[in-house]
Amino acid sequence: MSKRSKRRYAKATAVRERPALDYGSKSAALLARKHLEPGEAIAHVSKGLPFSELEHLRHEIDEPMESLARQLSISRSTLQRRKAERRLSPTESDRLMRLWRILQYATKLFGTVERARQWLKFPQFGLGGAVPLEFAKTEVGAREVEDLLGRIDYGVYS
Predict the structure, then answer these.
(1) What predicted TM-score, i.e. pTM, was given to this entire model?
(2) Is there a domain that residue 61 lies in?
């Protein structure tokens, strides 16, 4: 293959990155909504959420993409593949929705996304000194974080 045909091939097969999405943009419309019906959420998760939803969550939590991917148990190579495919798997989508649900609850409870972020990134006594974002890696841990938020909400924080 000549240099010219190699360049053409590389140009034709190159994955073009999409521009970063602004909060509330149509591409990240699912997570930007205030309320999502359970049936609709299940349908979206079962077919896999668009990669833009992960970028939207990254922006909201204000974490580097690599760190967020670790929270969702997505390896670096899989993350690059999902970015090229522009879609997450159903399992990854479910994990993303789990973190999104916790962020929404914390935001509602503390009033602002900034306060919710601070709470989610700081060790909490009610979780035995664990950081809620790290604790929420598993479904069991996420339930404990939600339970702690519920106790704070109802004034029985321990």
Answers:
(1) 0.74
(2) yes
